[in-house]
Amino acid sequence: MxxxxxxxxxxxxxxxxxxxxxxxLTPEGWPYVVPVWYDYNGESFTVAGRSRARWVANIRENxxxxxx
Length: 68
Hints:
CATH class: Mainly Beta
CATH topology: Pnp Oxidase, Chain A
CATH superfamily: Electron Transport, Fmn-binding Protein, Chain A
CATH architecture: Roll
Structural class: alpha+beta
Number of domains: 1
């Protein structure tokens, strides 16, 4: 499989269902993975979450995240 180009990645992110898995870390250091809807504008992602959602609190405590 050829490497994914920047244009190919942008096309994939904008033409697929806008659902991804977001992984955060709990205060105890355990992974916490949730499905989230996103919007990609070609440069950055926008993800909306409720202020009391566990994953939002995790990001406030530790900004390191991973997406899949």
